[in-house]
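Notebook entry, structure prediction.
Reason for the run: the old model in the group folder had no record of what sequence produced it. Starting over properly, with the input documented here first.
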Amino acid sequence: MKKVLLALAVALVALACSAPAFAATSVVPESQISWWHPAHTFVAAGNAQAVDTTNGRLVVRVTLASEGVDQFLGDDLTVIITPHTQLLRHHGRLYKAITLGDVRLGDHVRVTGTIDLTDPADPVYTAQRVIATHVLRPDQIKWFAFRGPIKSIDATGGTIVAKPVLVTRGLFDVIGTKTTFVVSPTARIFTWVAGKPVVLTLADLTPGEHVLAQGSIDRSVPTAPVFTINWMRVFVPQPTPAS
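New structure, fully documented this time:
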């Protein structure tokens, strides 16, 4: 027991003597860490912010980044596009060769490339491959889907007021707000009873019922889009358990 206590005392003394040294030590520069090596390649993904076809430059607002470009997360990274850079557009499972001029502002891009650290204070990022995917702005999308409760029904006028709580991008502006939806005369409205679909009409709906709906958006008047439901499933609210 005495040996154990003696060893513990020696350890505590050693720790006490070394504590000031640790406290006085500054952060070790990366260049002095033996296992640290600067990254010479990178992968970055984000949205195209600027396209310079004259000078061969692509500016990316970075949302995902590998080591070497992680300092650009949430910021803009400028990459050099050379004649050897492979430029592709991704659509579904297909890839099509494109030029830098085909990259549109707002496109989602994934860039792989190299980092030239000849001047460590001013690294140069060169793209070896750029894969672009076109992403429509929410105000350009012409279809929607949502889930939420019905607030009111106008069976004569062919509309409902609902409060979307889960939405696709086309309804980002109205999520959580009471919104009027036109119900197409040919819309399929149904519910499920005993495992089978039952066709409904607007007159069958009741405020408080939840619906899953999808349809189209008419943006002829950008400030007043018209949402038309073409398909709607109705979920009858479950009774509240007695307390």
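Summary: Residues 18-24 have pLDDT under 50 and may be disordered.
The old model has been moved to the deprecated folder.
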